[in-house]
Structures are given as C-alpha cells and as structure tokens.
C-alpha cells in the first residue's frame, strides 16, 4: 500500500487517508463559509418570522464577520501549541451547535448570540486550516491540497448559499440552518478517525512577527484596498435577495437561479485568474475592480429596466470580478509579505472579516435611509476607492523640496 510521510514528525499514512482528510477539510470550509453567508439568501424569510426589518437582520452578517475578525487576529498569537486535530474537530462541533442554536432561536437576540458563537469558531478555523492542509499533504502536492481546501469557499458561493436559499423557500429558514448544522456535526464525526495528529512548531515569536506586519506601510496599502473592495461588495451582496425580489418579473425561483449564476461565474473566473494573476497582478486586479464597480452601479441605476437577462449579465460580471478580487488581494499579500506570510495572512483575514461586517452595516444604513438601488450605487463607489489605492500602492512618494536635487 502506498504511504505518505507527513511533516512535523507525523507518521506515514496511506495516500487515500491523506487525501480523504484534505477533502474533509474542504467540506468543512464549505460548511463554515455557507454558515457565514446563509442569511444573505434568507433575509426576507427571517425578517418576517422574527418581526424585524431586513436591514436589522442584515446585522447577523455584521456581527458574525466582526467576531470572526477578532478571533482570527487573536488566533495569530493565542493558539500556541494546541494540537490541531482536536482543535479542528472541536471547531466543527462548535459550528454545528451554533447553527442548531440559530435554527431554534425564538428571538432576534438569541439568533445573534448563536451567530456570534459560530463566528468564534469561524475565525479560529481559518487561522489553522490552510497550514493544517499543507502539513497533511505531501510536500510536492501542497498547492493541490490548498486549492482543494479553498475550493470549499468557492463551492459555498456557487452551491451553499443558493441551496440554503432553496431549502428556506421550500421549507423554512430554520430548516436551512439545521441542514448546515447537521453537515457540520457529521464532518466533525468523520474527521475524528481520518485526520492525522499534527505536531506543532513553537510559536513563541508570533507576537513579534505580528507586530512587524502591523508596522509595514506596503502591506497596509493592500489591506486598505481590500477593505474598500470587500466593504462595497458585502454592502450590496448582503441585500441581493430582497433587491432581486423587488425587480418586476423576478419570482422566487429566478432569485435562486440568478444566485447560482453569480456563483458559477465566480468559480469560472478562478481559472482565468490563475492564468493571468502571476504576470499581470495589478492590471488584472484593477480590471476586476472596474468590472465590479460597473456592474453594481448599473444595477443601482438601471436594475428595474435591465430585465432578467440584463440583471443576469450584471450579476455574472460581478460574480466573476469579486472572485478575481479575492484571489488577487490574497496573492498580493503573500507575495509582498515574504517570510511574514503567516502573520500577514492573519491580519488580512481579520480585516477581510471586519470589512464584511462594515459592508453589511453600511448597506443596512443606506437601505434605512433610501432604497436598494442606492445600496448598489454606494457599493460600487467602494470599489472605485479601491481602484485608486491599487493604482498607487508601491509607488514612491515625491521627494521633499529641500531634499530634491
């Protein structure tokens, strides 16, 4: 039987077990991202059931993202030498219980509390999953292992959110959360006999490395550009389901189909991004940001007159663009950070999640004062600000007059 030697002193394992463990981590990623984004397709149903406005229910996305941001940043220095196998299993159990709590919540406060508990697991999970997959996989297949794990993220947008929306429409939004919770609990049980034990390295210098990242102006330029783009995206995406419901001629079944189209375009864009991103990172990223801005502003100004086909095209354009944007900024961070890639990624994840929360809150604020069209236009302006930052990242500042020669 073919066996694979793992890093950090982990005994050799059969190849089938190595790849099954990595596949389970990918399914875990699918479950945790679907948990984060599930309310987006269920806003109307949740709002009707608990007697709150859709903008208020959007705060369940905000709270989840901000708690996840804090726990991701904290994990960079707090996880220490905790063994990864029981940690990952425990986090999946926590995610499952959080979804079950959301399913049973009989008040808005209980729903927020259940979501906050899941968000803690979310941030910690993302802090260790990529490194765990890299340690499980053979050295020559680390890239493949990472792509499998993060494929769960794309699958959550393509399949998870529309499927949760479909379940909620056919049954009840509580059933959708229960289904995600059941998947999480099953994965926790499945991981127990399959995940190997992974010995951890000493992380005593993690605090100093994190402090070093926070002092780097080159990384902060990318962090801020990411924050504007992600804030704009989630200001609009959080309310995409009720926005589509307001468009004449779009029924509930079409909402699901359009969300599938959005996600499928993003999945397809991953392949194009892989072809161009290494050689043309900055111009490719600026093109993607321009596409997203164009699509959002078009939806805001002309959404009601575009028709189903026109809206489908704009959603596909937006879905493809945001996929390229996510990959582009993450690649730029890793390329720029060099040896500080791990703490830089922790900060990136924290800022990314904080921007998700800020976007949901911004969208709710605009919605409470105007309408869904205004939300789309404001979101499009966020990507415009990101374009301006991307265009100037890494460019030398002009010399001071007294130093110029």
Automatic annotation (TrEMBL):
Domain (Major facilitator superfamily (MFS) profile) ranges: 21-398
Membrane association type: Multi-pass membrane protein
Subcellular location: Cell membrane
UniProt-listed InterPro entries: MFS, MFS_dom, MFS_Efflux_Transporters, MFS_trans_sf
Main location: membrane
CDD domains referenced in this protein's UniProt entry, alphabetically: MFS_NepI_like
Taxonomy, superkingdom: Bacteria
Keyword Manganese: no
Pfam families: MFS_1
Keywords, ordered alphabetically: Cell membrane, Membrane, Transmembrane, Transmembrane helix
Transmembrane region(s): 18-43, 63-80, 87-105, 111-130, 142-167, 173-196, 217-240, 252-272, 284-302, 308-334, 346-366, 372-391
Protein name, per record: MFS transporter
Taxonomic placement: Bacteria, Pseudomonadati, Pseudomonadota, Betaproteobacteria, Burkholderiales
